[in-house]
Amino acid sequence: MLTHRRPEKPRPGDRVAIVSPSSGLPGLFPVPYELGLRRLAEEFGLKPVEYPSTRRMGSTPEERAADLHAAFADPEVKAVIASIGGDDQITVLPHLDRELLRANPKPFLGYSDNTTLLAFLWNLGITGYHGGSVMVELGRPGAMHPLTRESLRAALLGSGPYELTAATAFCDVSRPWQDPATFASEPVLEPAGGWTWHRPERVVDGTSWGGNLEILSWLLMADREIRPAEEYEGRVLLLETSEEMPSATEVFRVLRNMGERGLLRRFPALLMGRAKSWSFERPLAPGERERYRAEQREAVLRALAAYAPDTMAVFDVDFGHTDPQLVIPYGGQVRVDGPARRITVTY
């Protein structure tokens, strides 16, 4: 079975690379991006370093791969952080130098479309971190959420076990980045119902794999960065969905196909992120949002019943496209303690 190593973490005063492997949105929305850079410097004590395509929309896959190569190869850069996600990082994969990245392991933080690079590094035996983008978490209006800040600090600068804390309130409704008023106050939160446990009769210890469900479906479709099913035996599966808000039917079909491939039953535990249930394209009312999340949960349970009936699952975990956001190691150790209702990760 593939084993993973945790790259050495940066320390205050170190340089960290800021890259855009998916989309150059920092060029379109500089306010949250530059706010995120300031917080990296002022609250984390790190020195952000930009690359040619970081702020450029329409950069080629070759240009984005070159930025990643430069960031990982630079001995003065101690971590690599994605500015934001996107939808075409899969086109960067053919241009990546596996040996260069394997020889220069560094912590990489990102999520959404960055599931692609996390899976790529996972296959090189390098632990990454699912979460912590510059524009969203670091560039949050008003202030970083305390749970996000604490988790991101532990993942980026710390090491050792870290027990996840369920949020008591969360935000699901976004505000437009092009409106300066957005950044005058923090997002409005609503009560969170805590985590929901399914089959919590045992304790599972395993290294993690997964990420954004939509991106994983693309990797599966293209047969990119997916290993033989038996190599996922005993791992902890991470899944979450984005603001594109796939239907419950689509979620079930992706999981069904993972089941037909023999993948789903390999994971003794599943952490399912709280579903993003509002977008500018689909501004659902509160009751509709609650129903969307419930239908997604039912779809996941239906797939587990058919293909992985013994898998323990925890729903509405605060990772992925949610605020606050907990950073989850990708390829790192995760302990899911069902009887105690506790989740502990190792940064």
Automatic annotation (TrEMBL):
Stored CDD domains: Peptidase_S66_mccF_like
Stretches assigned to the LD-carboxypeptidase N-terminal domain: 16-131
Molecular functions per Gene Ontology: carboxypeptidase activity
SUPFAM superfamilies: Class I glutamine amidotransferase-like, LD-carboxypeptidase A C-terminal domain-like
LD-carboxypeptidase C-terminal domain ranges (all copies): 206-336
Pfam family, one: Peptidase_S66C
UniProt keywords, alphabetically: Carboxypeptidase, Hydrolase, Protease
Similarity comment text for this entry: Belongs to the peptidase S66 family.
Protein name: Muramoyltetrapeptide carboxypeptidase LdcA (Peptidoglycan recycling)
Organism: Actinacidiphila rubida
